[in-house]
Amino acid sequence: MTIISFGSQAEKLGALHTFSPQTEERRKICSRMGNTKSSALSKELLEELKSNTKYSEAELCTWYQSFLKECPGGKITKEQFEGIYASFFPGADPTAYARHVFRSFDTNADGTLDFKEYIVALHLTSGGKTLQKLEWAFALYDVDGNGTISKNEIQEIVRSIFNMIPADDQTKLPEDENTPEKRAEKIWAFFGKKENDKITEGEFIQGVMDNKDILRLIQYDEPQRIKDKLKEKKQ
Q: Which CATH number is correct for 6-234, 1.10.238.10, 3.30.565.10, 3.40.50.1980, 1.10.287.1080?
């Protein structure tokens, strides 16, 4: 199971502002990025985000003020992003998966998430259209960013997911899905690819839309304790 449901991705992104553990540490990390940015969102960026996301002008301005409060330098670092995930998986190792998610959102590949990248990611995972979500899922699996997915890349993402699944939970998985290798092999087989073949974005999206089993295999059903923590954060 591999993406972690889209809704819960949004919860983790939103946790930047509302989840209490490690808040001071996150501020320190962000502060290293530079001096505090202007508290006003530029008109150009505001219009762009209004056009391309579900958020209103008032919502965007509120998000921006909160964003700058947590990250005075105007950037989310990879370390901070990993810290958010670590908060939700205290007994596991979400580092590798968090890095892959971060990479997929860091569209300009500068090693940080600016406000635009953050809001687009939040919009995509909480309210984006199915096609947009699947395009993002493809970007997540396309580890080297070359426009195709190899079997090795499938294996890499699946391994990062299994790092977050406690050993006890892994034993409850179906026999043909209870290791990263088996899960990756099953995903690959659904696409009917040979060992050294590649999956294009179109093939990936069509395959997932046509086959609910593939969709299930590329997602991670979070344990109840994680869902409870997400619910706790909302209150």
A: 1.10.238.10
Residue 198, pLDDT score: 98
For 89, residues 6+ apart whose C-beta sits below 8 A from its C-beta are 164, 226
User: How far is Cα of residue 43 from the mean position of the Cα atoms in its chain?
Assistant: 28
Mean pLDDT calculated for residue range 18-25 = 40
Query: Which tens digits make up the pLDDT trace of 60-84?
Result: 998 898 888 888 889 999 999 998 8
Q: Burial letters for 148-157: b for 16+ Cβ neighbours within 10 Å, e otherwise?
A: bbbbebbbbb
| Cα distance between residue 100 and residue 218, in whole Å | 14
Looking at residue 188, what is its pLDDT?
A: 96
